[in-house]
Structures
1.
Amino acid sequence: MHGRGVHFVKIWVDDRNGQTPKIQPNVYRAIIADAHSNGMEVLAHLSRTSALADAKDLYHAGVNGFVHLVRDRDVDGEYLALVGSHRTVWTGPNMPVPITRDAIASLAETLPAAEIERMRTAIQIQEAKGNPPDALFELHCRNLRKVHDAGMIIGLGTDGTGDGFGVHQQMAAYTRCGMTPMEAIVAGTGTNAKILKLDRMGIVARMKEASFIVLDANPSDDIANTRRISAVYLRGKEVDRAALRTKLQHQRTARDKIKQVSFPSE
């Protein structure tokens, strides 16, 4: 991997609810040591069943970052002491944010109709249950607040959602769990750029890449204002959003038509 220019190595310290063997401490310690000897960094995916114990040992093993929060129980004083004594270790919380009607409305222009319908069905099922409190989210929220207060570096991750709306949902979750709107914005811009070694991105400044968005309202007043986008600039050039929207709608229409075609059997 080093020979191919890879900088980050991700390890799964997770048995996937007993479905796979979990990587053992002697193995991930060897991986971390070998990666560090080659100037590489190691990121750990934490499980939902033994995350606290694993995270503590990973700290001692020299891990560089976590792509989830501890999510099996509330973090304790011992863990927070490790956070305080390892100031360069970061986390991408990946808050378990449920899909909302606002998200669907924002994505309806571009996602396939079948995917939009699946999202709507999921919301209807949730509403039929009376929207009970999300215990997993609340656990994440408590732990995010604690590690933030302990000084942990917090970036922003969406756990693979490529719809563009996940980032806004994550920032809203961060503010709901104790971070200020500006801290949430910095997590997804300047902090992420530093974590990923993207030294020309993350801030608006001379000699930087000049990729940014222009908003119609102040996100410091309400983090949801990050969704009120007036203009988008990539490398100093304004994106023609109307043309892009038309292109995506045509692609969506074409995909939907293909799915509706029935081919005769041979």
2.
Amino acid sequence: MFSSPRGEPPIPVMDPRAEARIRDLRRRMGQSATSPLFVGLAEEYRAAGRLPEAIAALEKGLAAHPGYVAARVLLGRAYLEAGRAEDAARMFASALALDPANMISARSLADIHLSRGEKGEAIRKYKLYHALSGDRAVQEIIGRLQEEIGPQPLPAAEAQGRVLADPYFEQGHFEEALTAYEGLWRAEPGDAELESRKSETRERLAGGGPASAASGEPEAARTAARIQALKRWLSVIQKR
């Protein structure tokens, strides 16, 4: 890099091979800025330090390919490198919504929350990352943060979900029960009790266990009401 004569930001000096790759990608894309090749082009721009061009290419491409998770992750990284942490967090969250097993997004969100001092939310995302990756080093971060903030109550949606999930299981609605337990586990990854419930529900599904009978009409009515409440809760948590 070298400084411009008027004290403007340094201008990246391009590797001739990188310039050739960019020219080739732009030629292959033709006149369409929404070709799937936009991710490769953006990565070349990013590697060359041309972040505004990388961000512009990704934003245009995602307008046409909103479900392209890798592009969302790359845009999140580019936003971070450009100092746009809020935009980066939004992009990583959207990638994680499309792909709940996306380790890069989970870890990146955890780091962003920690940088903001949002330790409770950072713990939740570090737990998710640990559950997905098995990275033991993250356990130390989680342990340190938990010591710093102490035990935290579950958010209202998850607390309600724990109360409401069991009726599905008790009434033999095992597919719905598994959906509920998995939704809770995504909120509290690594929870041993939820993991046990998930395993037991899968076993019942595999064995085709019958639904249990309700013990009288009043109890059946209460159970039906609780299940309806659970459905409402699921509709909320699944939109996160």
